[in-house]
Amino acid sequence: MPRSVGSSLPRFDARAKVSGQLRYPGDFDLPGQLHAKILWPAHPHARITRFDIGPALAAPGVVAVLAAADVPVNEYGLNVRDQEVLVGRVGGIVRCLLDQVAVVVAETEAQAEAALALIDIAYEILPGVYSIAAALAPDAPLVHPERGDSNVLLHYKIRHGDVEAAFAQADIIIEHDYSSHPQEHAYLQPEAGLASLRGDGKIEVIVAGQWLHEDRHQIAHALGLPVEQIVVRYPGIGGAFGGREDMSVQIVLALAAWKLGRPVKMQWSRGESIRGHHKRHAAVAHAKWGATKDGRVLAMQVDVSTDAGAYAYTSTKVLGNLTLACLGPYEVANVRVDTRTVYTNNLAAGAFRGFGGPQGHWIAEMQMNRLAAALEMDPVEVRLRNLLREGSILATGSVIPSGVTIDQVLQTCAQAAGWVQGPRGWQRPPQAAPADDLPSPHRAYSLDAAPARRARGVGIACCFKNVGFSLGYVDECWAGVELYGDGSIERAVVRHAGAEVGQGAHQIMRQIAADVLRLPLEQVELIAEDTDATRNSGSASASRMTFMAGNAILGAAQQALQKWQNEEDRPCVAEYRYLPRPTTPYDHDTGAGDPNITYGYCAQAAEVEVDLDSGRIQVLRLWSVNDVGRALNPQLVAAQIEGAVAQSVGWTLQEDFKQAQGSVLTDQLSTYLIPTVLDTPLEIIPIILELPDPQGPLGARGMAEMPFIPTAPAIAAAVHAATGRWFHALPLTPERVVGGGRWLVG
Prior knowledge:
This protein is of the alpha+beta class and 746 residues long. The protein is 24% helix and 25% strand. The chain contains 17 helices and 27 strands. The chain is globular.
């Protein structure tokens, strides 16, 4: 029988998805169910001065209007409990437009919608802060005055070596400002769910999320109930990308079902989804690097601030990753980093694919590209002179975990994109890898410039990113395996609570178990959607699911198999709790510590064509090289690379989430434009390296976030190669690229 691991076996859920048979949270209904709608605030920062639900309660079909007084413990937050479940009361404070004021529950959705307008509410508009600079101003209004006298949520520092002495020795200084922008997750299904009070007294919530047991914990805390009284179930999840890590409908649905004793359903519109969940963090930065004339970086000084929005969500954790990512995958003896995340009255920011890595590497890789250009040195050659390697010391003072492969990854990418290694080191001949041989025709647009007004260029960038939770958080992952049969194993049941958010995690879980047990895939059953049937396995985030779930299932399957071989009682049942090596927080004053379990590595080269009249950038070809340790299912790995690249190209060139004074200007997919198939690269070339991670299950390491991270600096470097112009602010929209029409002359 062929091994399951390493084979591109078809996903077991594929037929149900493409046929429409798989049910998502919005597809569930129960007899006698009610429908709920959220009252959203009218202003981003205001105090409620009048709040009368009487007229709404009297409306046809309305069963209840729930507000702040109805929530037993009116607080929640994944890392910091700084947000109220419902703010509806006289004196309640709205801090941004994703706050939920009240919930109307009625017999029909239309009746609930109509009653929202009948709630008699008035506001006193409060002064707000709507940018990072405004939040940091000495006289800035405080978003959370109860939390201190500053809008700074968290400030990290790294102090390593002697930066000033190193700058004095440097032959060249590269110093620039950078900025990046928010991004909307735009997953397929907007937030939806169904909650009910079961016959056993438990509250069951059917919803889409990324961490079953954390959702249960947050619901139980807000309702003041034991966690055992809450059951969370995940059916099909229509995408996540980090956007479902925080609460949306979970708590209010559970509250309504508990209070009313009837099933309650809620389905958000796309507009509600866009205003109702967090975004990628906007960031502003100043970077100063010093290097020798032969390209060796001596010192890095980086200052970064991110916009957390009105609530913490995962901003502190994102900042932890960004603090290391802004240095890139390079070993430098002298480092000074200051990073901070600040409260504003914008929509909250939180987890998004890459988790601080894209913003950090936008800074680091653009600095490296600028350094290469200033030294008239090839960008691959200068990187190779500074890359992390086995035994390298991070800026935190710890040795990087073994399995460092960024040099092989970068060299493989360079070769694929046309670079050659010669007597003068790595170089890319101007004629290398022309785009004229692309397999699909050039896309024609009505406003295309003449061929003479189009310019082509190639750029390269690389990255590293943590795998698993970090900075002292105790990561853990539980799995259970049950073996059934008589003389031979006839069926295996795997229990694991990892969320399937579209990435193929449940397929990989079954393949690992099948591989260890030497069973056909169809004889392995997975139970993964119910907190009553599983234990805590952590979130589908931090590039951790394959790494953590793989190790947990591997351990449980091996123990169950040993019991079977010892002829113990049938069924043979084993449970395994995987604990990776511990990490430590940054030291408060120096940043010293051992921040991450292990890392993943990626390099990308982009070939672009720039329309010099319109400013439109088309990515012709993008090479993405990823060390995945072990490709457990190569086709799924390639799909993750392609999806990450498409999403990152959107962030780099097209997606421009706009807020003004806390109001969302791009609240529909007609105004917030995500890439279609005609906006993605003409050719994405996924290149998979399998250099085993010593800690990974069967050598595998997490990889789904890495291909997002280096795309923006690779494209920006290619635009510079094509036009001679550098850009330090994202996104690279046509308006920004044209720069006011300066290119129309000459």
